[in-house]
Amino acid sequence: MMLAGTIWQRELVEFAQRRRALVIKLAFPLLVAIPLVLSGAPSIYAAMALTMLVAIVGALGAGAVLTRERQTGMTLRYRTLPVTPGRLLIERLSTNAAIDFVQLTPVLVLIALRHPSTFAWWPALLLTTAAVLLIGNLMGAVASTLSQSPGEVMLYVVIPLLPLLYLSGVFTPLSEPALVVASRLLPFSYLHEALLGALGGQPSLLPWETMLAGLGFLVGAAGLAGRLGRRVFESD
Amino acid sequence: MKVDTASERSLLIATDLSRAYRGGKGVFDIHLRLGAGEVLGVMGPNGSGKTTLLRLLATAATPTAGQVSWFGSSNARDPSVRGRLGVMLDQAAHFDQMTGYQNAWFFAHQFGLSDGLARERLDELFSWSGLGDARDQLVGEYSLGMKRRLNLIEALVHRPAILLLDEPTLALDYRAELDLIERLQLLSLTGTAVILATNDVHLAERLCDSVIFLHQGRIIREGQVPELLTEVAGSKEVQLQVNSPIGLENLRSLAAVEAANVDGDTVHIILARGANPAQVLAVLNGTADLVSNMRVRRPNLGDLFLKLTGVALPAGHR
Question: How do B10-20 and B26-35 pair as beta strands?
């Protein structure tokens, strides 16, 4: 029997014990990615679809779990633990994001196998994927405080996500200077760039610029999670 | 400098404590003080604010006014405060996809226990609680009573200085209730302070040193249990089981009747000291065939609550 004494270990143990959910979680991204990557779809479309996939995988998981925990009274129990809410949220979201990353690893491997010559983009792709997953989880966590219903929380996550993806230039290249600047403030634009590069497309940024942005968003999201702990775990 | 010895001895002090919810519910202007080894009962009907008060004292809710001091600190988020509290909330929330032992192991480690100590204490507590055979079963498959017992294990495992238990005997069988009372008495003797939110009159009278009565979010009476019981000493509680509703006005107009209340098909009547239960039947003259059963017994804390408020504590706990 696997025993978990810390918050991150517990997340992993629970994930590993839910075999059916584990299979579904691993199979779902592959079902979307295999036709896109293997069929030779234009890189601009494949990058768009995969950016949306990563963002949604990150955002939906945490929102649903935290809403369910609020309903069952688990959030109240968290409040009585001798752990600060910030640390609790960072540990939970980073573990959830790591699990999501594992879920997407077969997709990333598939891209690497199909486009081995684009290896210069891989570090940027790994970092921007991690950053978008953590930010997605954070969005889900904040959305979970807005409603008691998991369905409603899903809506609160998806409704802002779609315009943010548009503003990131994921759906269509942006030409307006103001929109270009706005896109550079959003993590999804860097993931989109990294995917374009890794899929053999024509990104507008260099790999190292994208990688640095990914790292910045990752650190920023971790810091923000620490600040939002109280809001997520202590709002009634 | 003047030393407040009472404050020094108190593990927990609540001052002007309030938590207001929309619609006027909540708790208001609560003052209480708890010393080492003391057992305090919080009693009141559903919606009286017991759970809210317990959550405030357990750091699970934030007050809208006033403050709580635990071990001299009023910082509810201080890990050194939370680490010395053992909490059993009203909802038996657990990680359902993990076993009972995995759940308890997680909470034991959150409160700083080493592997060896956690193993030793959990073995003893699982055996004590009767959950030994179910320790490797998923909590999602547990009954409510089993989940509540697991909650107790998790609240006790780190040997807290203050135990805060919300309806600890809810869904427990009589044997488990007696075991719990015995354990809490032992803990109290070794200095653990206990706060129980309960409507279980039997539990409160056997275990608590003192009790506070909550009604509509406010303390309406508090005191030592023997002292409170003297207020109803000599009087009697008459329980009438009725086949159809009867009017209480005639009963209440009797000088011998201190309080009367209906709870389902049972009428509870508190008779004044020296009053004869036959007087009640006399008032029901003509409608006495409606009464299917009559019981007279020594009054308890629940009857005092009824006398003070006119509201009965929930059925099943009397």
Answer: antiparallel
CA closest to B92 among chain A residues? A73
Q: Tens digit of pLDDT for each residue in A88-132?
A: 999 999 999 999 999 999 999 999 999 988 899 999 999 999 999
Q: What's the whole-number average pLDDT of chain A?
A: 91
pTM: 0.86
For B92-140, write each residue's pLDDT tens digit: 899 999 999 999 999 999 999 999 999 999 999 999 999 999 999 999 9
What residues of chain A, 9 to 48, have a C-beta less than 8 Å from chain B?
A: 10, 13-14, 17-18
How confident is the model at residue B282, as a pLDDT? 76
- Choose from A7, A12, A79 for mutation: most chain B CBs within 10 A: A79
- A6 contacts: CB under 8 Å, gap ≥ 6: A91, B109
Q: How confident is the model at residue B3 (pLDDT cuts 50, 70, 90)?
A: very low
Which residue of B79, B82, B102 is in closest CB contact with A13? B102
State how far the Cα of B212 lies from the Cα of A59, in Å rounded to an integer.
46
Other Cβ atoms within 10 Å of B235 Cβ, number: 20
Closest B-chain CA to A69: B93
Is the Cβ pair A14, B87 closer than 8 Å?
Answer: no
User: In this model, does residue B160 exceed pLDDT 80?
Assistant: yes
- Residues of chain A with Cβ-Cβ distance to B60 below 8 Å are 76-77, 79-80
Is the sign of the CA dihedral B116, B58, B79, B163 positive or negative? Answer: negative
Q: How far apart (Å, rounded) are the C-alpha atoms in residues B148 and A26?
A: 35
pLDDT tens digits, one per residue of A154-207? 899 989 999 999 999 999 888 889 999 999 999 999 999 999 999 999 999 999
The CB-based long-range contact list for B206-212 (8 Å cut-off, 24+ gap) reads B206/B181, B207/B39, B207/B41, B207/B181, B208/B39, B208/B40, B208/B41, B209/B38, B209/B39, B209/B40, B210/B38, B210/B39, B210/B40, B210/B41, B211/B40, B211/B41, B211/B42, B211/B43, B211/B301, B212/B32, B212/B40, B212/B41, B212/B42, B212/B43
pLDDT band of B15, cuts 50, 70, 90: very high
- DSSP-assigned states of every residue in B212-223: EEEETTEEEEEE
Contact A195, A173 (CB under 8 A): no
Report A:209-228 residues touching B (Cβ under 8 A). none
Question: Which H or E run includes B28?
Answer: strand B26-35
**CA-CA distance, B206 to B225, in Å (whole number)?**
9
Q: How far is A105 from chain B (nearest CA, A)?
A: 25
Polymer length of chain A: 236
